[in-house]
Amino acid sequence: MSETQATEDAVGAKLQAFIDAIEESETYQQFIEASEQLENDDEAKQLLNSYREKQRQMQMNFDQSLMADLQEIQQQLDENETIQQHQTAQAELVELLQQTNDVISEPIGMEFAQSTGGGCC
Hints:
By secondary structure, this protein is mainly alpha-helical. The chain has a domain at 42-90. It has five helices and no strands. The chain is elongated, with a radius of gyration of 21 Å. It starts with a helix and ends in a 13-residue tail after the last helix.
């Protein structure tokens, strides 16, 4: 095995350990649970779909009545416990991932999770 291959294998093992640690974290588990609750809450899903549809309609043609409908749905979203739990869990997961990015970025001297704008296409 070449030195390069050994290094790649070691990095792969560390990456998998990192992924496992994230997946085992309480924050991630709470997000998964909140996502499952949202998926099983038809009322919450309908509210979200209605909100997205009104947003789409507003982008195509601004209308005061659409704005009023959107605000009413937003209020219902704010009052929906399932949606609020999901948003809180999502925000906490994003914070955890930002913190891990910061921890990785510091020793390498650059933003680890920064998009370089590259890609194959």
